[in-house]
Backbone:
């Protein structure tokens, strides 16, 4: 399965990776590659827990356009 993740830097310079289609699925790392590897593990763990609890594996996401 493929998931879209977001990457951002926090105030301490750590890379934060989040999977928007899985609520609460967030990880971090000192480098982008470390954050991506960590979020892969977090996604797998979140999917396992959601399946065990009978929850939907993901939530629906969509892109919206905002005029600025």
Residues:
């Amino acid at each position: 399965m493929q998931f879209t993740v977001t990457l951002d830097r926090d105030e301490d310079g750590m890379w934060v990776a989040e999977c928007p289609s899985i609520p609460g699925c967030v990880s971090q790392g000192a480098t982008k590659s470390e954050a991506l590897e960590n979020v892969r593990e977090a996604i797998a763990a979140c999917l396992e827990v959601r399946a065990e609890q009978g929850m939907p594996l993901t939530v629906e996401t969509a892109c919206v356009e905002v005029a600025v």
In short: The chain has one domain: 1-68.
